[in-house]
TrEMBL record:
<dbReference type="Pfam" id="PF00153">
    <property type="entry name" value="Mito_carr"/>
</dbReference>
<keyword id="KW-0812">Transmembrane</keyword>
<feature type="repeat" description="Solcar">
    <location>
        <begin position="162"/>
        <end position="246"/>
    </location>
</feature>
<comment type="similarity">
    <text>Belongs to the mitochondrial carrier (TC 2.A.29) family.</text>
</comment>
<dbReference type="InterPro" id="IPR018108">
    <property type="entry name" value="MCP_transmembrane"/>
</dbReference>
<dbReference type="InterPro" id="IPR044677">
    <property type="entry name" value="SLC25A3/Pic2/Mir1-like"/>
</dbReference>
<dbReference type="GO" id="GO:0005743">
    <property type="term" value="C:mitochondrial inner membrane"/>
</dbReference>
<feature type="repeat" description="Solcar">
    <location>
        <begin position="1"/>
        <end position="62"/>
    </location>
</feature>
<keyword id="KW-0677">Repeat</keyword>
<keyword id="KW-1133">Transmembrane helix</keyword>
<comment type="function">
    <text>Transport of phosphate groups from the cytosol to the mitochondrial matrix. Mediates salt stress tolerance through an ATP-dependent pathway and via modulation of the gibberellin metabolism.</text>
</comment>
<dbReference type="GO" id="GO:1990547">
    <property type="term" value="P:mitochondrial phosphate ion transmembrane transport"/>
</dbReference>
<feature type="repeat" description="Solcar">
    <location>
        <begin position="360"/>
        <end position="439"/>
    </location>
</feature>
<keyword id="KW-0472">Membrane</keyword>
<keyword id="KW-0496">Mitochondrion</keyword>
<dbReference type="GO" id="GO:0003729">
    <property type="term" value="F:mRNA binding"/>
</dbReference>
<dbReference type="InterPro" id="IPR023395">
    <property type="entry name" value="MCP_dom_sf"/>
</dbReference>
Length: 462
């Protein structure tokens, strides 16, 4: 079936589907031709399935051991399904990585006739990016299958004011655009947290919004979302790079390398304290616009109406819960991302980072960001429920939220949707951020220990 499927998909005009595709394939290749990709298929599926089940079991066990405060047999079915989905999502990232080379081979073999498969396979390998091997007579030896190093022309000196400005710009793009793009999901999530009796599930939540507000209702609050998270992203990424370097210099080279995870945690926490001050006013208006139909159409009328109702300081009444949500979130986001990326370059990628292509480096950034995002959603979810509750109800307190939602509700209400949203969001953010860094001539994030030495052009080429 895989053989016929690939041929039908990759050769327009070969066949319309299985009914005419199968006999035509057998006539062209013979019955045994249906199995010519069996060995590469084993090469794809066996490592994939080993990774799929082993990593899933391990991740789920770790989540129940370290992230879920209640024993599994006391968790409700919704939470258990959420854990299964999160564990499966993370496992899927690793599955894709380990099985991808064989997947390319399977598709290639089944897309070509047997008479030209060997020649075209060799041609495919010869077209792979490679570096010439050095030779003793000064002439390049025959090509190897090593992925070429990215060009790092050193346009921007590492840890210079221009470097931090570039990181700030990358943060604006990565956070502002991604959060704006998931406004419909965020809208349903906020309403599920505030009114679970009305918004009982993801699908019913979308249905309620569509019936009551129409398609345009899905994008209510997109302007404060874009502005607020752009400001937050600027501070988050810009100050993270600054504090990571600052704390590394204080620790010195030896301790910076030895305690790099603590530096990631301290740098990200420091950056997020500043970033949330920039985000908080827009977050307050966004939640009020999204969860109270008729309050305002958007930022232009929502901000003055909010200030008139709550006072200017009311824009910051959710700051402490916002810190409670975002600081653990950001510490997990940066520390786990840096650790995952370092582990991927150490154990999963056979080539040193400085010899990997830019495309591969950006793929690692996206995968690392996706895995980090799942953990981010879990550790920050109780505070996310608090922020939504406080910004929705005038004069509400943390005690009111705990009394109405319950401790269990704080941890679980809206969690599966938020795992999907934050996993996608975080992976996309790291992908965009590192793509921008590559665009301006900087290396991608992670894979090396934080620098503790003074700025120099040599660091820009690491």
């Amino acid at each position: 079936m895989e053989a016929v499927k690939v041929r039908v998909q990759t050769q327009p005009g070969f066949a319309r589907g299985l009914a005419d595709g199968l006999p035509r394939f057998v006539k062209s290749e013979g019955a045994l031709g249906l199995y010519k990709g069996l060995v590469p298929l084993w090469g794809r599926q066996i490592p994939y399935t080993m990774m799929k089940f082993t990593s899933f079991e391990t991740i789920v066990e770790l989540m129940y051991k370290h992230a879920i405060p209640t024993p599994k047999d006391q968790c409700n079915n919704t939470l258990q399904l959420g854990v299964s989905f999160a564990g499966g999502y993370v496992a899927g990232v690793f599955c894709a990585i380990v099985s991808h080379p064989a997947d390319n081979l399977v598709s290639f073999l089944y897309s070509t006739s047997s008479s030209s498969s060997l020649k075209k396979t060799l041609d495919l390998l010869n077209r792979s990016p490679s570096l010439p091997l050095p030779s003793t007579d000064g002439v390049s030896a025959k090509r190897s299958f090593v992925i070429p190093a990215p060009s790092e022309p050193g346009k921007i000196e590492m840890y210079s004011p221009t470097f931090y400005a570039a990181c700030t710009a990358g943060g604006i793009l990565s956070c502002g655009l991604t959060h704006m793009s998931v406004t419909p999901l965020d809208l349903v999530k906020c309403n599920m947290q505030i009114d679970p009796a009305k918004y009982k599930s993801i699908t019913s939540g979308f249905g309620v919004l569509l019936r009551e507000q129409g398609v345009r209702g899905f994008f209510r609050g997109w302007v404060p979302t874009l502005l607020g998270y752009s400001a937050q992203g600027a501070c988050k990424f810009g100050f993270y790079e600054f504090f990571k370097k600052y704390y590394s210099d204080i620790a010195g080279p030896e301790y910076a390398a030895k305690y790099k995870t603590l530096i990631y945690l301290a740098g990200s926490a420091s950056a997020e304290v500043i970033a949330d001050v920039a985000l908080c006013p827009m977050e307050a208006v966004k939640v009020r616009v999204q969860t109270q139909p008729g309050f305002a159409r958007g930022l232009a009328d929502g901000l003055p109406r909010f200030v008139k109702s709550e006072g200017a300081l009311g824009l910051y009444k959710g700051l402490v819960p916002l810190w409670g949500r975002q600081i653990p979130y950001t510490m997990m986001k940066f520390a786990s991302f840096e650790t995952i990326v370092e582990l991927m370059y150490k154990h999963a990628i056979p080539t040193p980072k400085d010899q990997c292509s830019k495309t591969l480096q950006l793929g690692v950034s996206f995968a690392g960001g996706y895995v980090a995002g799942v953990f981010c959603a879990i550790v920050s979810h109780p505070a996310d429920n608090l922020v939504s509750f406080l910004n929705n109800a005038k004069g509400a307190t943390v005690g009111d939220a705990v009394k109405k939602l319950g401790v269990w509700g704080l941890f679980t209400r809206g969690l599966p949707l938020r795992i999907v949203m934050i996993g996608t969001l975080t992976g996309a953010q790291w992908g965009i951020y590192d793509a921008f860094k590559v665009f301006v001539g900087l290396p991608t994030t992670g894979g090396v220990a934080p620098a503790a030495s003074p700025t120099s052009t040599e660091l820009a080429r690491m």
